[in-house]
Amino acid sequence: MQWETVIGLEVHVQLATQSKIFSGASTAFGAEPNAQASAVDLAMPGMLPVLNEGAVRMAVQFGFAVNADIAHRSVFDRKNYFYADLPKGYQISQMYHPIVGKGEVSVNLSDGSERTIGIEHAHLEEDAGKSLHEDFQGQSGIDLNRAGTPLLEIVSEPDMRSAEEAAAYLRKIHAIVTYLGISDGDMSQGSMRCDCNVSVRPKGQTEFGTRSEIKNVNSFRFVEKAINTEVERQIELIEDGGEVQQETRLYDADRDETRSMRTKEFANDYRYFPDPDLLPVEIDDEYIDRIRDDLPELPDTKQARFITEYGLNADEAAPLVQSQTLADYFEQVARGSGDARQAANWIMGELARLMNQNEVEIQDCPVGASDLATLILRVQDGTISGKLAKQVFEALWNGEGSPDEIIDKQGLKQVSDSSEIEALVDQVLADNQAMVDDYLGEEVAKKQKKKFNALVGQVMKASQGKANPAQVNDILQQKLTSSD
What does the mean pLDDT of the chain come to? Predict the structure, then answer.
């Protein structure tokens, strides 16, 4: 049987406010456990929540970025449940009247296609505390510093049909929130977390299968792996005669498996009702228009500008706008070198290779944009060849100096003196008479070209890669033509 995967994501984004959503307690990361849990965050008797306007503004910004409806009136509800990291026994959230309505984003896939993913809504809520297990033998510690940190929960439509699409969607959401500056998006610190709702159904069936929710996946790579693992589990279970249970599961990256945590709750299990301590949030057109007018350039707009301003195609521009930092880096290299296409090629080629190999993000890249621009200029002005430029780039990555210092130190300057190159060519022709005769005796153009390139290779080898390739080609062609 052929199966179709159905995926929806719930992305929790910690908003970059200085204080919490309903109290004045700090949201700074890294404080001593429980040092930033106020009486309001814990709902101590007599404490009343006061809404942080900054969280509202950031939610509206996100709504515009995904072409969503903005609610002029939204309502906070109490989601009632007890867990150790939520000692007040409920979470303030928005169930029935969220601040951001339906929207959509477009994602680019590896095959060059584009998919539009619907957003069902996005709502504001408070984060819970954090359970700590590592430092307590047989027990758990509770750190309530995170309790009350503002979250924007972004709920997608079940529009994704592969793990690749889900990861691309998550990257797009990450790009949007970081471009807006409403979150740092640091998944390693919990600033952005993802729940994956996964089900399978026979191809052609319109009814959804029973879904499992994989909680708190914290990297793009793990989202793909967790979804693929869960899809395999569900298909195998069904084909063996079993049934998928609606439940919450945990992804274990070390074992590459999902494990059951608890039976999935339904909305009525949480006994939602409007929070009696908070009035409905009402915002007017003037407030909404002011936020819209102040929006920065977003990924899709930047991609379109890169295409028109720098002459890139869509496949070249799309990966460059995945983060604001990467886009800024590209523009610095493009302007410094005067060659946008070479800038894009180096960034998505050698730079991306070394970043992936060393698991380094662009903000931590040891090769500065100005150094990469200088390196491209040195290839353009003939100081070094394109092949040797890769050697210089490796040295730049290893912190061995500036491009010019590395070129001088390693003696990599390209030989462009025609008399020197002519002497090299003469020596190669003299030492490889059989190759010369073979070339001159060949009548098939394609084969002759191959044999010519072999002679070029001998000259480059003799020069230790330093001879100007264009001059080598010209001089060698002249010599062989005169010999014919």
Answer: 91
For residue 88 the two structure tokens come to 């007040």
- Tens digit of pLDDT for each residue in 413-436? 766 657 767 777 778 788 888 887
Domain residue spans of the chain: 3-290, 297-409, 418-482
Nearest to 329, CA basis, from 307, 313, 356, 306: 306
The yes or no reply on domain 418-482 and CATH 3.40.50.300 is no
- List the structure tokens of 77: 């509800």
Closest CA to 147 of 98, 95, 89, 77: 89
SS3 90: strand
| pLDDT mean by block of 10 residues, the chain; 484 residues | 94 97 94 93 91 98 97 97 88 97 94 93 96 81 94 98 96 96 91 96 94 92 95 96 93 92 77 95 97 95 96 92 94 96 96 93 94 94 86 95 92 70 77 78 73 79 74 77 69
For residue range 71-104, list pLDDT tens digits in order.
Answer: 999 999 999 988 888 888 999 999 999 999 999 9
Sheet holding 114-126, edge to edge: 103-108, 114-126, 150-156, 3-14, 192-202, 212-217, 247-252, 257-263
Q: Provide the 10 A C-beta neighbour count for residue 482.
A: 7
Burial class of 205 by CB neighbour count within 10 A (0 to 12, 13 to 18, 19+): exposed
Can you give the pTM of this predicted structure? 0.84
Cα–Cα distances (Å) from 179 to 206, 321, 326, 332, 351, in that order, read: 37, 10, 11, 17, 22
CA 31 to chain centre: 28
Q: Which helix (H) or strand (E) holds 195?
A: strand 192-202
Instruction: Name the region of 119 (left: φ>0; alpha: ψ -120 to 50; beta: rest).
Output: beta
Collapsing DSSP to helix, strand or coil, 7 comes out as strand
CA distance 199 to 247: 11
The confidence score (pLDDT) of residue 365 equals 94
